Amino acid sequence: MANKGHASIAFRKKDLNILKRFRKPHDIQDFLNSISYDEIPGTSSPRMVMEEGKANCFEGALFAAAALRMIGRTPLIVDMIAQNDDDHVIALFKGGNTTAPSRNQIRQCSGTEILCSGRSEN
């Protein structure tokens, strides 16, 4: 596993055992796809997401950012503000052909494929 720095301090041993199973960003998305969508308003920590097995969009992005950090990626949380719908929050990271791990009640939005290359596409 990559150098974690101080990231592991906030997690209990049982949490770290779950996080150690993630080798690639896709593993994080698979985990998010396997848990329930949390429809109760509020925000749970990544620890609570693992403990309760549910997450809303924002909680999924926070969890994904923490898990990405644990596998040596530098995440960036992005809030996409919607006009006539709920906002959608994702955890972006650099590297190859990748996805942005996310949790959404609309399955088509989860694991959003990154379509831009990171440079201006005018």
List keywords for this structure.
122 residues, disordered N terminus, 15% strand
Largest sheet: 2 strands, parallel
Mean of all residue-level pLDDT scores: 78
- Helix content range: 25-40%
Secondary structure category: alpha+beta
Counting DSSP E segments of at least 2 residues, the number of strands comes to 6
Q: Give the SSE order as H and E letters.
A: HHEHEHEEEE
Distance between the termini: 38 Å
Cα-atom radius of gyration:
14 Å
* Residue runs with pLDDT of under 50 for 5 or more positions: 1-6, 112-122
What spatial form do the alpha-carbon principal axes imply?
A: globular
Number of helices: 4
**Oligomerization state:** single chain
Task: Indicate the proportion of strand residues.
Answer: 5-15%
Main sheet strand line-up: 1-2
Word description of this protein:
The strands form three sheets. This protein has a two-stranded parallel sheet with strand order 1-2. It is globular, with a radius of gyration of 14 Å. With 122 residues, the chain is α+β, with helices and mostly antiparallel strands. It has helices at 13-19, 25-34, 46-52, 57-70, and strands at residues 36-37, 54-55, 76-80, 88-92, 99-100, 112-113.
Secondary structure elements and pairings:
Layout: H1 13-19, H2 25-34, E1 36-37, H3 46-52, E2 54-55, H4 57-70, E3 76-80, E4 88-92, E5 99-100, E6 112-113
Parallel strand pairs: 1-2
Antiparallel strand pairs: 3-4, 5-6
Helix pairs in contact: 2-4
